[in-house]
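sry for the spam today, last one i promise. struct tokens for design, 120 residues
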């Protein structure tokens, strides 16, 4: 892997992948496999509880500079400033909001099942 830093002034054309955070290993920062309430790192063999997983950013972009197209991927904590919080913090917010969105739907469905269902 090239460790030299390169700067590119370009326009973002598209996100390459809609999944921009991933659960990562505490030891080697690789993507971990989460099954039920356990997690496992295939790279270093580390295991743990999935609730304690750290998350990292991985943002893949298609960009254009003058007449050249590039696909770039930006990893890790350098994106904390861009998003305004860590990937783990963002994951918690997204998970909490998803839970809030799903609960009213089930409450509405329970209310319909106890009352007369609307006729269409």
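last one done:
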């Amino acid at each position: 892997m090239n460790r030299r830093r390169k700067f590119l002034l370009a326009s973002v054309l598209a996100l390459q992948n809609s999944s921009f955070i991933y659960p990562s290993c505490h030891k080697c920062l690789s993507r971990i496999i989460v099954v039920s309430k356990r997690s496992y790192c295939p790279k270093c063999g580390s295991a743990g509880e999935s609730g304690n997983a750290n998350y990292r950013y991985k943002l893949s972009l298609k960009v254009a500079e003058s007449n050249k197209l590039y696909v770039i991927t930006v990893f890790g904590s350098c994106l904390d400033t861009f998003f305004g919080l860590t990937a783990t913090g963002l994951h918690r917010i997204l998970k909490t909001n998803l839970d809030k969105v799903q609960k009213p739907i089930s409450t509405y469905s329970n209310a319909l099942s106890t009352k007369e269902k609307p006729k269409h």
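The chain has two helices and seven strands. ok im logging off now
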